[in-house]
Specification:
This is DUF2470 domain-containing protein. The protein is an alpha+beta fold and 227 residues long. The chain has six helices and eleven strands.
């Protein structure tokens, strides 16, 4: 595996985690006094949403070091990529403050990376941080996989409605609809009716290069209410 391939694979694991563990401080203590939310792969770094009185935010204010261990959710359950894990180390830093109008204001805490290691059963590959954070990896396979999974899990009714409209099919005859895959050039969809499954490819007007462009292209081709 060359350095560019390792960086892309590591970034894909960050974008598509099965489990995440955060350790803080030189003693590597787990943050146990709160439930924090994780925003995976925000500009090539894991970002956590934490309450204003949280130990995590206090650690960031103190410039504590952190380590994040990520178990891969990349690929199907039988994929060899599921055996991968990612270890990220760096300094915890507050990035932003949540909305003060809400009853539970939260702050964003990022891990500013100093090292990235990709682990498999038989090897550990150290990945160059600048390669790992390369903006060209933003639409990595892990991100695209999670885009498909989110659409199928959270937006199946919208997908059925959109495909019925796009392909001129009576909505009442459509039993199910899903995304089969997405890439920078288009999306593969399928729907199920009484006659069986029907796969179809929808090509974007032009290749997309960012999550924002991907979201706009999917909404344009499928449904304006999808996120």
């Amino acid at each position: 595996m060359n350095p560019a391939e390792a960086a892309l694979l590591a970034r894909s694991v960050l974008s598509c985690p099965e489990a995440i563990t955060l350790w803080v401080g030189q003693a590597r203590e787990a943050i146990a006094d709160e439930v924090y939310d994780v925003t995976c792969d925000m500009h090539g770094a894991p970002v956590f949403s934490a309450g204003d009185d949280s130990a995590l935010l206090a650690a960031a204010h103190g410039g504590a070091v952190g380590m994040v261990e990520i178990a891969s959710g990349l690929g199907d359950p039988t994929s060899a990529h599921r055996d991968l894990s990612l270890v990220l180390q760096g300094t915890l830093t507050q990035r932003d403050t949540g909305c003060r109008c809400c009853g539970d204001p939260r702050s964003l805490v990022a891990l500013e990376l100093t090292s990235v290691d990709l682990l498999s059963d038989d090897a550990t590959v150290t990945v160059d941080v600048s390669r790992f954070r390369d903006h060209r990896h933003v639409l990595n396979p892990g991100y695209l996989q999670r885009t498909v999974e989110h659409a199928n899990t959270a937006h199946e009714p919208e997908l059925r409605s959109a495909m019925a409209s796009t392909f001129g099919i009576p909505l009442q005859s459509m039993l199910a609809a899903s995304l089969m895959g997405v890439d920078p050039c288009g999306v593969d969809v399928a729907w199920l009716d009484a006659e069986g499954a029907h796969p179809h490819r929808l090509d974007f007007v032009r290749p997309v290069s960012s999550p924002q462009e991907l979201g706009a292209a999917l909404r344009s081709h499928l449904h304006a209410g999808m996120c």
